[in-house]
């Protein structure tokens, strides 16, 4: 009986250690109490940790791979045409190389199905007005708290370009995310992709100004092969970017 109790206590402690919340900062935002939390959720192999802010009774906003750009600001504002978008006064510039600085500034995407216009406005005012100061106050955060260069009332997936085609006899697609990162993945969609990016001769990121994608050689990915990859509007990469082959 004692052994069984010990095993049960061990399992409960293990479960508790893999999930939960910790307050990193609390204060007032737009006249309402707000709290920045460190959230730990259990995963298949390990716990997934991210920060999350909640103002009053509004739905909380997680800062994770679904709501932020991991490699900097968007390569073009035209991505957000027709969408409620706001930029910080000291808006960070787009950088061609993802490794040029850390942490990278990001847009914050607020899904309209979760955040109405009032919620978007409240959170946008906080992240573009108070967030920089809050980040400075938290010196010992166990994870990176990205600087926010703007807010978008939309989902990040809406502004990700996908070009589907065939490579090595299987379905593949090129994915160009708002932060300009170019990835080739096997599968029919991001949800069904293998998850392991394929090596290509294309640059790792869109070069600005000019929306240039540099390509090291034309053997593996010739202009004709790249044209065979099409998006849902039957357009190829060259309809949106300037493809430059370099010797």
Describe the structure using short key phrases.
12 strands, alpha+beta, 3-stranded mixed sheet, 247 residues, 4 helices, 4-stranded antiparallel sheet
Percent helix range? 10-25%
Q: How many strands, what sense, and barrel or not for the largest sheet?
A: 4 strands, antiparallel
Helix/strand class: alpha+beta
Number of helices: 4
CA(first)-CA(last) distance? 73 Å
Biggest sheet: strand arrangement: 1-2-3-4
- Report the average pLDDT across residues: 88
H/E element string?
HEEEEEEHHEEEEEHE
Please describe what this structure looks like.
With 247 residues, the protein is α+β, with helices and mostly antiparallel strands. 17% of the residues lie in helices and 28% in strands. The longest helix has 16 residues, at 2-17. The chain starts with a helix and ends with a strand. Residues 1-18 have low confidence and may be disordered.
What's the topology here?
Blueprint (H helix, E strand, L loop, with lengths): L1 H16 L2 E10 L2 E10 L6 E8 L5 E3 L21 E3 L18 E4 L7 H13 L1 H7 L10 E5 L8 E7 L2 E7 L5 E5 L25 E4 L7 H5 L14 E4 L2
Parallel strand pairs: 6-7, 11-12
Antiparallel strand pairs: 1-2, 2-3, 3-4, 5-7, 8-9, 9-10
At a glance:
Helix content is 17%, strand content 28%. With 247 residues, the protein is α+β, with helices and mostly antiparallel strands.
